[in-house]
């Protein structure tokens, strides 16, 4: 695949000047074996101080501090990446994990920690019962089970773009039978953890030159999906919104235990509640 150029513009507008709190940006793609970062540049208007660090998950975090009150904040991220993921990947899963259930070795289990433990209350056991319904046998093929779960989530939940902030809980999405890509990712990652398998939420970009994938606007947009850890193969990308496996159309920016920890841009302001007018996001992905 040719190099991809990604432009991500976020604009906040206010009725009158407000004092902005520091903004947290997760916009710099993560370099991985199949993703090479060629260049990256970020600009902010009005003039701001930009400080870089990494979080507990190894994501690159930029903190933007604007010193003077302003009626407008514009953040522009531009990056060029080489994406070489295969459209039909073959995963070298260790023999010990080829059939489910399987045990992680002691070090892997300890290191996965919360990434292998369900995070949401399920007092009636309804969610666990639904997830366990995908286990067709004991033992059963691990990768086939995960594919079935991804397809089952996509069949049960209708994709629906949602402008409201926040993420639905897995039980909410299960009951509503609809959700955004981040809601669907949150449902899938919890389901994988119910099975005792390590998983993490991922936010980034979906490259869709054919314009036929769910969650995409034009040739590309922000997106959410899930990485599942299988011994031997490592982290495998699952996009349950589109029932796809592997990272051929995915550019990861941030990984986290919970998708709410991987918001591309987050921050606030000090001033009257009615000062806020709008937030606009525009993403454009093109081949170099």
UniProtKB/TrEMBL annotation:
<protein>
    <submittedName>
        <fullName>Transglutaminase-like putative cysteine protease</fullName>
    </submittedName>
</protein>
<dbReference type="InterPro" id="IPR002931">
    <property type="entry name" value="Transglutaminase-like"/>
</dbReference>
<keyword id="KW-0378">Hydrolase</keyword>
<keyword id="KW-0645">Protease</keyword>
<dbReference type="GO" id="GO:0008233">
    <property type="term" value="F:peptidase activity"/>
</dbReference>
<dbReference type="Pfam" id="PF08379">
    <property type="entry name" value="Bact_transglu_N"/>
</dbReference>
<dbReference type="InterPro" id="IPR013589">
    <property type="entry name" value="Bac_transglu_N"/>
</dbReference>
<feature type="domain" description="Transglutaminase-like">
    <location>
        <begin position="173"/>
        <end position="242"/>
    </location>
</feature>
<dbReference type="Pfam" id="PF01841">
    <property type="entry name" value="Transglut_core"/>
</dbReference>
<dbReference type="GO" id="GO:0006508">
    <property type="term" value="P:proteolysis"/>
</dbReference>
<dbReference type="InterPro" id="IPR038765">
    <property type="entry name" value="Papain-like_cys_pep_sf"/>
</dbReference>
């Amino acid at each position: 695949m040719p190099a991809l150029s990604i432009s991500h513009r976020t604009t906040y507008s206010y009725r009158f000047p407000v004092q902005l709190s520091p903004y947290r940006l997760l916009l710099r793609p993560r370099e991985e074996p199949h993703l090479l970062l060629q260049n990256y540049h970020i600009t902010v208007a009005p003039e701001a101080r930009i400080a870089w660090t990494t979080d507990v998950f190894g994501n690159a975090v930029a903190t933007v501090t604007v010193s003077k009150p302003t009626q407008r904040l514009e953040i522009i991220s531009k990056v060029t990446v080489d994406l070489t993921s295969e459209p039909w990947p073959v995963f070298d899963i260790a023999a010990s994990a080829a059939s489910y259930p399987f045990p992680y070795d002691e070090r892997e289990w300890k290191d996965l920690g919360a990434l292998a433990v369900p995070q949401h209350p399920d007092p009636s056991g309804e969610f666990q019962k639904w997830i366990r319904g995908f286990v067709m046998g004991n033992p059963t093929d691990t990768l086939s089970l995960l594919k079935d779960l991804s397809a089952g989530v996509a069949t049960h939940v209708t994709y629906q773009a949602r402008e409201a902030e926040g993420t639905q809980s897995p039980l909410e999405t299960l009951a509503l039978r609809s959700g955004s890509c981040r809601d669907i990712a949150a449902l899938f990652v919890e389901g994988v953890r119910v099975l005792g398998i390590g998983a993490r939420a991922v936010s980034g970009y979906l490259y869709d030159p054919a314009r036929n994938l769910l969650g995409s606007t034009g040739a590309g947009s922000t997106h959410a999906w899930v990485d599942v850890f299988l011994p031997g193969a490592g982290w495998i990308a699952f996009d349950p919104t589109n029932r796809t496996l592997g990272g051929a159309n995915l550019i990861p920016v941030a990984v986290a235990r919970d998708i709410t920890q991987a918001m591309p841009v987050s921050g606030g302001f000090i001033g009257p509640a009615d000062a806020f007018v709008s937030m606009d996001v525009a993403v454009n992905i093109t081949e170099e």
